């Protein structure tokens, strides 16, 4: 049974997902990778990217990076997903994302993964 690691002894893993305009994605990815996200045992800077349409309407005291207050915006954005090998990595990656992302309120989610 050499190399066997019980599920109970493995740290929880997470998936970080964020959205950004194509021109900002590389900058945000590099910051999140530098925080430790996107790593597998023999690989680094791993992610999955898909194109979609983001929609939002800035309201109230919003200070949007893109668009105008009160105007519905629909823009091309990329969805980027990457593995975080621990809760600590996920927290550091989110902190780096918030610093590097140009949006006032970056769109992101963190999902805890199950190990089957």
Task: Give a verbal description of the structure.
- InterPro entries: DUF34/NIF3_sf (IPR036069), N-reg_PII/ATP_PRibTrfase_C (IPR015867).
- It comes from Pseudoneurospora amorphoporcata.
- This is ATP phosphoribosyltransferase.
- With 116 residues, the protein is an alpha+beta fold.
- Helices cover 23% and strands 29% of the residues.
- It contains two helices and four strands; from the N terminus they run βαββαβ.
- The chain has helices spanning 22-34, 87-100; strands at 14-20, 48-56, 73-84, 107-112.
- The chain has a four-stranded antiparallel beta sheet with strand order 2-3-1-4.
- Helix 1 (22-34) packs across helix 2 (87-100).
- The two termini are 18 Å apart.
What structural class results from the helix and strand content? alpha+beta
Q: Helical element count? A: 2
Shape: elongated
Strand order of the largest sheet: 2-3-1-4
Distance between the termini: 18 Å
Radius of gyration: 17 Å
- Largest beta-sheet details: 4 strands, antiparallel
Mean pLDDT: 92
């Amino acid at each position: 049974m050499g190399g066997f690691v019980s599920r109970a002894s493995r740290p929880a893993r997470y998936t970080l997902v964020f959205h950004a305009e194509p021109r900002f994605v590389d900058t945000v990815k590099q910051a999140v990778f530098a925080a430790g996200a996107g790593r597998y045992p023999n690989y680094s800077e791993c992610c999955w990217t898909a194109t979609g349409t983001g929609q939002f309407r800035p309201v109230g005291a919003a200070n949007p990076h893109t668009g105008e207050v009160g105007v519905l915006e629909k823009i091309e954005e990329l969805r980027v997903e990457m593995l975080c090998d621990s809760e600590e990595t996920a927290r550091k990656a989110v902190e780096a994302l918030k610093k590097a992302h140009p949006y006032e309120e970056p769109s992101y989610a963190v999902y805890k993964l199950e190990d089957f």
